[in-house]
Amino acid sequence: MVSFFKRWGITNPWVWVFLVTTSLQVFRGSPIDTLIFGSSTLLVWLDAAGFFKKSLQERPTVSNAMIAVTMLVLGITLSFFPRHTYLQGAIMIAVLPVALYLVWHKDHGPKEKPDKVMARTKLVWMILSLLLCAWEFAANIQGQLDNSLYTHPTISVLIDPFLDSTVGQTVFVVLWLFMGVGILRIWGRK
Length: 190
Fold this sequence. Notes:
Blueprint: H1 2-7, H2 13-28, H3 31-48, H4 64-80, H5 86-103, H6 116-146, H7 155-163, H8 166-184
Helix pairs in contact: 2-3, 2-6, 4-8
């Protein structure tokens, strides 16, 4: 029975993370976020079930100059155009296939086991991430039940005043771009 669940990707924890997040968006009554997370859930599940294995390519390489130019263009565009507009939405939709192409590639088997320090570091980051997610989920649910954004504020409600300024928006965009490049591991070393 376990092999059935594993073969169909049901044991992959990311499938469940995305499914729970999609359910939260349904509960919130947010159709756009439901579409985004629902589509993401479907993609992650299809990958976990092995539907993409034959079509995945080798890890692509991108020149550092191309990454820097792209980051500069995105940084300027996303920093100085108002948040939550159709233009920013269109930019994010345009960036999505490129990010997926860069991150979704063939896996080359088991990775080397981390040393004790790295294992502890990963554990600490995992716990902090789970606590942050739990806070966000609880605040979202309590805010929906109370019909108030401010009684139990989410992280986005807390940082919105900072992000509503050009400086705040620029700082966030720069951090977001550098974290994205770091997560995608696309910056080549010479």
